Amino acid sequence: MVFKASHRGDDGFTDLGSKRVSKDSIVIEFEGEVDELVSLIGVVKAFFKEYNITDLVTILDDIQRKLMHIASYVALMGKVDSPIDAQSLSEIEKLIDDFSNKVVIYPRFVVPGASIGSALLHFVRAVCRRVERRAVRMLREGLLDQKTYVYLNRLSDLLYLLALYVNVIINVKEDLL
């Protein structure tokens, strides 16, 4: 089978639901950044699969799926309910609490790079923070609901803790500033 693109985007517009929108619209920018985050999480998930760190693989897989549902929800521009509800927020808060108890929270900056796994998670966290910054504007403009924004904000916190956790389980000391 040969892939043949339709070239409908050659004019600088793309389909979003039943509408044509500019490829530099805030919604398309958000969609692209979420796609990048999901893809990068996939790289990290594959890395942890190779080292059989299944608890992180499971968590990362769940995050990917939630992010893909968020992207779908945003693309449908309010025609469906947000996939993030009170239970989703409770679940991520519980993960944050659990991992907070498994790591040392340093009063100084952690310099990413103590291990490959940890550095990858710090990279994912940085991309997540970019998604979160875009989401602030989406929230302000009524294109994103509060719970979904809160989830993205909490997600960067969780990713930071997971980066610290990796170094705990492989017994690598953090590099601090």
Can you characterise this structure?
The structure is a single chain. This protein is mainly α and 177 residues long. The chain has one domain: Cobalamin adenosyltransferase-like (Hypothetical Protein Ta1238, Chain: A, Up-down Bundle), CATH 1.20.1200. The protein has five helices and four strands; from the N terminus they run ββαααβααβ. The strands form two sheets. A two-stranded antiparallel sheet has the order 1-2. Strands 3-4 form a two-stranded antiparallel ribbon. β1 (13-16) and β2 form a beta hairpin. α1 packs antiparallel against α2, α1 (26-50) packs antiparallel against α4 (116-140) and α3 (86-100) packs parallel to α5 (146-169). The chain is globular and about 50 Å long. The chain starts with 12 loop residues before the first strand and ends with a strand. The relative contact order is 0.15. The mean pLDDT is 91.
